[in-house]
Design a protein that fits this description.
Radius of gyration: 17 Å
Number of strands: 0
Helix content: 55-70%
Number of domains: 2
Length: 170
């Protein structure tokens, strides 16, 4: 596969993962673009393996985000904000009732994700949104596969409890 093929397959999922784990959509797009620029520069040295390129893209994007947050003096980690400050507002005008309901649900989910501990949020979003395997997540985060499984399970349980407390029924 070419770098372009990898980009087509990976970029949307990587962007969604970055947004779900705290980046704005614009930042996520920038991180993904920069990650693939770096991958493009390394293209001659890469093993042409889907898993290797995907892992590299996620690692580069995550590191770019960490560097950006560290360098940005205005950044306040979500974990340090009071719960009342972590809100997501819907757009002012919506084209339809479906869009309004979708925005409302996205806001509820974003607030619920913000309440998860960072390690649980990272494992869960890599697994569900990034569609990464347990083995890939373990290698990327430097923990055992069993711990990744525990974190995903605990994240699901906490999300279920948080959403139930917010009045969401299953």
């Amino acid at each position: 596969m070419t770098v372009e093929d990898h980009y087509t397959a990976i970029a949307p999922k990587l962007t969604n993962w970055l947004v779900a784990t705290g980046s704005s959509y614009a930042e996520a797009c920038d991180f993904v673009q920069e990650a693939f620029v770096r991958i493009w520069k390394m293209r001659d040295d890469l093993r042409d393996s889907d898993a290797a390129v995907r892992g590299l893209a996620y690692t580069i994007a995550r590191n770019l985000r960490k560097n950006s947050w560290r360098d940005n003096s205005r950044f306040v980690p979500v974990d340090e904000l009071p719960e009342s400050a972590v809100t997501v507002e819907a757009p002012e005008t919506l084209p339809s009732e479906e869009a309004e309901e979708s925005a409302r649900l996205r806001g509820i989910l974003a607030n619920a994700f913000a309440k998860l501990p960072p390690a649980l949020r990272e494992a869960y979003t890599l697994f569900q949104i990034g569609e990464r395997s347990i083995r890939e997540i373990a290698a990327e985060t430097g923990v055992s596969e069993n711990l990744v499984k525990v974190r995903i399970f605990r994240a699901k349980e906490k999300l279920r409890a948080i959403l139930t407390d917010m009045g969401v029924t299953f």
